[in-house]
Design goal:
Three copies of one chain form a homotrimer.
Chain A: H1 2-16, E1 44-48, E2 51-55, H2 61-66, E3 68-75, E4 79-86, E5 90-96, E6 99-104, E7 112-113, E8 129-130, E9 133-136, E10 140-144, E11 149-154, E12 160-167, E13 181-183, H3 193-199, H4 219-226, H5 230-236, E14 248-250, H6 288-298, E15 325-327, E16 336-338, E17 342-347, H7 354-358, E18 361-368, E19 372-378, E20 383-389, E21 391-397, E22 403-410, E23 414-417, E24 422-427, E25 431-438, E26 445-447, H8 460-467, H9 471-479, E27 486-487, H10 491-497
Antiparallel strand pairs in A: 1-2, 2-3, 3-12, 4-11, 4-13, 4-14, 5-10, 5-12, 6-9, 6-11, 7-8, 10-15, 16-17, 17-18, 18-25, 19-24, 19-26, 19-27, 20-23, 20-25, 21-22, 21-24
Helix pairs in contact in A: 8-9
Chain lengths: 498, 498, 498
């Protein structure tokens, strides 16, 4: 039950973490005295040979209040988002597509190793080994900790669209609030640099020779450090590379990525058809624990292991093999469900423990036409609402009782709902779908209407006195709406829609 | 012993919480370079039909340095402080009076249920149920977490006076430093709004239609969400309500609040006599744990359960039933006591675990005429000193050795003593009483005089060299004063006073 | 293995502390948009009769970005750094010399007691007792928590040089970012006051009468509080004391400090010879745990007790007797070692648990001529690099690929390397030695070259596509350099140097 889940999350964090402290930097004075919110589109787009990255302006007051930055990457087929790390944790939602991603945790072993008897094709003799590579699919949430190198790759026909929230206010970020991408390669500006330049306009600008973190080192330093020749150093530094190549590069002939033996061993070629998800099978020699976990994931059972299973783990089974992603999309098993109204799936650090590290969580929802998400507020988090499909009518109210937003949120736009501001939504499309990024790993909401809402928690006499109404009316306020989160459309609306 | 308590608190937090990190937002650059402190009075008063709310200006530099806001609510008889929530945790001290309070925790069950066989009076058939309602009395500290709806009610003749500290610097507040009250009802400005307006004077002001969080939603949204009629929605939105009604409303005939069966079952009518505290008895079918706790509270035994008792609890016995208040007033058993000097009672998260969640603690003290609280400093917290009764002569010294305050603190005024600033007090009244709110759930002080003080912790030779004095003098500095916290008046003063 | 250690530290903190949140205040907007770093020298020096204190300007943008303040104290023979406390935690590295230090933890017992049968010399009858006094030596890291009184004393011929990092951004500091020293004695300005005055130039300045925290109290307050006469109060307040005396005072005839019985009982006189470190032996009646710990320390075995050993401790064996210092100097057993390249020793909260409290760690390194520290970045911390001996050529690169530092760092200068900025170093001296203070108690680095580096963690095909190079070249990038941290000079350079 959703109620139980909320209670569970609050209770556990109260017990375990001293009360779910959000541990975030607060915005500057007055940044959150917002009298008008806007549904925002990206205001910049950087094209790359393999796709593009769109960014929302992090200097926008709403983003500054929430302490976050938002961007959207689109990867064409056989394209690689080049490795980079950030000065703040990221939570990425896969809006569309499938592919691979990797992260490199310093100090963790390279656990994916090529077999001794090397394959013949392409004349390779070198036995590669590297850290775990993961497969992602539409609807996945991926958690990227601060400073950890991340890359992703689209091996499918369908373009991959990934929405990334970077939490600048995180206490993991010891620099200032500007989002920074540190690219390991290439000769292109990092996507948020232009906003930084805007901010410090007056200052003289330095000419970059490279733009990636290798390009700033002197050539002989790198020759010595890597023990490679000048030519290779030039490649590392992105010398002579066309700036247009950008952060997402095309891979001719596709990448060959090691994958568990149960999958048909293959090198992705450009012509392969849409991959069958079912091919992902656990390895026979996989550990029981991994087996269980994958089974669970397939059957949509949630994991609530909060550390218990971990206690008998060795070191390398902890962070080095921590689960870094989980599906919350439409194909996952919802937490809140009403066939006439819609579905909601949340992901907190109880589902995906790595979220406790980055102190973020998320929610994925889908509403039928004219169905409502009851008025509610975020107890302990800012919420960054991004519309995936369709449109909804949203209202947001601040502490002065002012309507700070009253309008449509359509697919591709983002709306920031600050902590404690009241919000309600009504779908205007057959299926309005959204993802909400939340700046707390155990984000909780308080509902202002329906069963088990804030109003139902108060004595009927208190309600009556509070709202200056009859007990009979107070009773209606407490109990007329039998729904908790999602309210189906009225009979008449449903008939009209049918 | 107080010494042991301090050591205990430091040790435990070192072990359990990685060293009692205060987890608070720091003030802006220079905010704490205070060369002059003032004993401050409230600078605004908002009258309501059932009482009034006074506020201290949160833009005052001393309050900005401490990152807190202070207010004082007075509730007349049969008056209700309407439900609201805040963007930061509150610690409330009941200076005077008794009554009821409630909080609504989202996701927690409604555990107070009316019996099946409904009582006849007033024609009620509807069986009400709601979350726990608590009784408070003079001297109570009440902890209100961020975003949790809170209301209180005075059913007695004596007006209730409640001092509320809101900790804007808390990491639970993800918005900016301005205190915000989100009212669920009414048509009055939230008490801190005027300071927010002051700050952003230039900006055009929006006309509010309601002032509460329901008033910002469109009428049909609420009709759908609550499934109630237009008339009730108008009530929720505070339409047509007189702004003068305010945040504290009179309840005609008094509120009927469910109470445990041992209490004489009654509906409070306007004419009832002063309630007998003794009537509060545990229910026979109460769990053993609750029984014990209430017994403990009655006998003034402190709870140091730091989680141990909790480990065998189910979920609903954790946050949903957490103790939210505790008495530290003059009738409670003091932690530090000297019949000739006075008494001090502290409350930390070891006494009231919910304080760990809100990261605040408090101290209540009472000093006899001419008795002193030895010079000391707050190790890990700011202290907001509020005088309840009488007056004292206070001195505060900053890091430059400057006297930043040297004057009287009289009843009703507040003085902010920033972290690490040295402070000493001498009572000028027969009984100077104060409450100090501290911005750390395990606030500790270091004493600069007396037994077991900082000076006694150093070798006598170090003292002598440090202060350029003889060993014999250093010995006096270390040991002449046999008192630890409170120093009784000298013989001569005592005789004069008698 | 260093790899294992990194993994261990990350894993444990992930499990135990919810992911190593750094819990620090972020710098103001734009403070870290640094396009040019400088190797900085102290810009002020305050002479005292027993030595001097040099300070780096904390208003310098690089220090403001890192949120720290740096100072260097030099103590001549028989000189005492007078007791003081700070509004932020300090990490002190002993660059040179040996001596004693003490801290006073409020509420902790005085565990060093003089024997009943008092010694005759100097006519003392008074039986002194005080908190633990510790001996420090060259290469020690000393952790001083916020608000805890600290003093140190040099009883040797060699001057003591102590580098102190004060972490203003720590969440333990609830005041603003200005470093503050609260002196218990003397009549000198605290060493950082001049920078505070610079900042608030406009404001009228108050005349100090004392400068220490006793001087701001009125005389009769202190007479009453300490029960001492006027003359002694004058001494406490530093009245009539020459300002030139300063923060470090000469002790005529040396200090007599109680020390464990195994050491030759003696009162340090001015003429004693250089002390033999070997004289420090554990007491026979010492607990087994202490014995083990000291043995470990002698043999360089690290402690990874993370609480487990603590669980059977009483209270007084926790914070009151916590280890407060540990050696990481050249005589300690290194964590990373290559006889041709150099050595590195790190200290984290796993080595010295009190570092978890102050959320700082450190690294000590020594590089042979022409040896390199591979390009790397600090994952979760700012690093404050201070050169102890020799000089090195350092390069630092920001997120835009710009070289923000490319120059020499010579002994006595400090360089701030912000979180995630890439850095590499090459020694220009026979032995370049440094200490790096890190603003995270489990600071981790990610290496950009060599075995087990970030590059080796990625599949060879991803490297090839990322850097637009052949698989064969990618293979070289991954594996050509067989070293992990320190790269020895090339054959030719070594021969040239020999």
């Amino acid at each position: 039950m959703a109620n139980k889940l909320l209670a569970l999350s609050l209770s556990l964090c109260f017990l375990l973490f001293g009360g779910c402290l959000a541990l975030r930097e607060q915005p500057q004075q007055n940044e959150c005295q917002l009298e008008r919110l806007n549904a925002l589109e990206p205001d910049n787009r950087v094209e790359s040979e393999g796709g593009m990255i769109e960014t929302w302006n992090p200097n926008n007051r709403q983003f500054r209040c929430a302490g976050v930055a938002l961007s959207r990457a689109t990867l064409k087929r056989n394209s690689l988002r080049r490795p980079f790390y950030s000065n703040a944790p990221q939570e990425i939602f896969i809006q569309q597509g499938n592919g691979y991603f990797g992260m490199v945790f310093p100090g963790c072993p390279e656990t994916f190793e090529e077999p001794q008897e090397s394959q013949q094709g392409e004349g390779r003799r070198f036995r590669d080994r590297h850290q775990k590579v993961n497969r992602f699919r539409e609807g996945d949430i991926i958690a990227v900790p601060t400073g950890v190198v991340f890359w992703m790759y689209n091996d499918q026909e369908t373009p991959v669209i990934a929405i990334s929230l970077t939490d600048m206010g995180s206490s993991q970020n010891q620099l200032d609030q500007m989002p920074r991408r540190f690219y390991l390669s290439g000769n292109h500006e990092q996507e948020f640099l232009r906003y930084q330049k805007q901010q410090v306009k007056g200052r003289e600008e330095q000419d970059n020779e490279g733009n990636n973190i290798f390009s700033g080192f002197k050539r002989d330093f790198l020759e010595d450090a890597l023990n490679v020749n000048r030519h290779i150093v030039d490649r590392l530094q992105g010398k002579n590379e066309d700036e247009e190549k950008g952060a997402i590069v095309k891979v001719e002939g596709g990448l060959s990525i090691m994958s568990p033996p149960e999958r048909q061993p293959r090198h992705h070629s450009g012509s392969r058809q849409e991959e069958d998800e079912e091919r992902w099978q656990p390895r026979p020699h996989k550990s029981r624990r991994e087996q269980e976990q994958e089974d669970d994931e397939k059957h949509g059972r949630p994991h609530h292991k909060g550390g218990s299973r971990w206690q008998d783990n060795g070191l390398e089974e902890t962070i080095c093999t921590a689960r870094l992603h989980q599906n919350i999309g439409s194909s996952s098993s919802p937490d809140i469900y009403n066939p006439q109204a819609g579905r909601i799936k949340t992901i907190t650090s109880l589902d995906l423990p790595v979220l406790n590290w980055i102190q973020l969580s998320a929610e994925h929802g889908s509403l039928h036409k004219n169905a409502m998400f009851v008025p509610h507020y975020n107890l302990n988090a800012n919420s960054i609402l991004y519309a995936l499909k369709g449109r909804a009518w949203i209202q947001v109210v601040n502490c002065n009782g002012n309507t700070v937003f009253n309008g449509e949120l359509e697919a591709g736009r983002a709306l920031i709902v600050p902590q404690n501001f009241a919000v309600a939504a009504k779908s205007l499309s057959d299926r309005f779908t959204y993802v909400a990024f939340k700046t707390n790993d155990n984000a909780a909401i308080a509902r202002l209407a329906g069963t088990s809402s804030t109003l139902s928690g108060m004595p009927v006499d208190v309600i009556a006195a509070t709202f200056n109404m009859q007990r009979n009316e107070a009773r209606q306020v407490k109990s007329n709406n039998p729904f908790k989160f999602l309210v189906p459309p009225r009979e008449s609306e449903r008939r009209a829609a049918a």
